[in-house]
Amino acid sequence: MKKFLLNETRMPRSWYNVVADLPGAMSPVLHPGTLKPIGPADLAPLFPMSIIEQEVSTDRFISIPDEVIDAYRLFRPTPLVRAERLEKYLGTPAHIYFKNESVSPAGSHKPNTAIPQAFYNRREGIRKLVTETGAGQWGSALSFAGQLFGLEVEIYMVAVSYQQKPYRRSLMRAWGGSVFSSPSNRTASGRAVLAEHPDSPGSLGIAISEAVERAASDPQAHYALGSVLNHVCLHQTVIGIEAREQMAEAGEYPDVVIGCVGGGSNFAGLAFPFVPDKLDGKPVRLMAVEPASCPTLTKGVFAYDYGDIARLTPVVEMYTLGHDYVPPAIHAGGLRYHGDSPLVSRLVHDGIAEARAYPQNACFEAAILFARTEGILPAPESSHAIRAAIDEALIAKAEGKPRTILFNLSGHGHFDLSAYDDYLDGKLHDVEYPAEAVAAAMLRLPRIEGAPASESPAGG
User: How does pLDDT run across 342-379, given as a tens digit for each residue?
Assistant: First the structure.
């Protein structure tokens, strides 16, 4: 069989919380002003209490509300597909499977968390959500979820993606979202960046600052986040829970599980449900793949840092390139983030997961091959996972040994055609890792009393 499908009655009824199975406790989240451990009251201006409770929960499973499951039924469960034509082209003994999250209305995995976030906010009486978006997948998903639950949505889209991907803006607006290029003149943090860098390409760190500032100033509004924090990773685990069941139906178990990483949510969604097996001694590899021009996991440091440039967000321990580092303007806009999920960072730091980085031309080459064999044009972000899957399949070919590979196709590239034009026309350039800029940003990491010294990168 090529496709492995679950009917709606087999949809997960609970999210999996990897915190429950981590060896040792997570480092505390700190208040950005005091650099002391943060409490629920500090987060209440930004998030509903249900989300705050999930953020700090140590329960292994958290029930999915019926209203969320009903909305999930619009597109879940998503297919697991065997990439047989890609296997044949590569001449590999490996079996390659992908979880196709591009079938959601927004064309990516992002509605998995946008829907519950909108639900919990509406239940608490919130009327408006404010957020940032990189390439636009998250902004699209939240606009869609906002319509499902009657919420106004305001989005700050990283400037370079705002310019590169106009039709993602159109999609957000079609679902009622209001979209602004970031940095903007609508916030103090945006104006500060523009005063120093009038032609700034923007970054997720800048856009986050703008969104948090706007949300915190409106008592009817909350902030919504598409990646990084624990509750976002939690909601995405429906991907891996379904994939485990579908792989069993295929009669196989993955040797390697692969996801691309910007903030970490889609890798977390696929890989976290396999962590208990890894901890129990099963030889499954969990691989996080990132862009070589923004190599947070592979060349960043494991340290406490802010999530945004204006230092408005909680301070967390993670792999980081420095909160005021602005990554180069690559086409995988959703992966241009200076930090990573504390949970993903912890898994890489502890050796439970591994990290790898690729330049964008190698990823687009893999994306075109995937499109020409499997028929799906992937998002530039997803192409990083495809590149790694192809390389793993070629290693299996060179060794003459079978290997089962599972990766997350986190979204389609239908709104990224200008990027594909640039690649096909030979205009796409690989951007070198700017070591000097990162070194300068590292000098401005917060100094936390009693915290261990920053640690060097995980490598990959």
Answer: 999 999 999 999 999 999 999 999 999 999 999 999 99
β partners of residue 16: 61
What is the C-alpha end-to-end distance of the chain, expressed in Å?
A: 34
Pick the CATH number of 75-107+231-442 from 2.60.40.10, 3.30.70.260, 3.40.50.1100, 3.40.190.10: 3.40.50.1100
- Contact call for residues 100 and 80 (beta carbons, < 8 A): yes
Structural domain spans, the chain: 16-65+110-228, 75-107+231-442
Mean pLDDT of 417-442: 83
Two structure tokens written together for 436: 């000097």
16-65+110-228 and 75-107+231-442: identical CATH topology:
yes
Class of domain 16-65+110-228 as given by CATH: alpha beta
Task: Give the count of beta carbons closer than 10 Å to the beta carbon of residue 440.
Answer: 13
Q: What is the pTM of this model?
A: 0.93
- pLDDT tens digits for range 156-177: 999 988 988 889 999 999 999 9
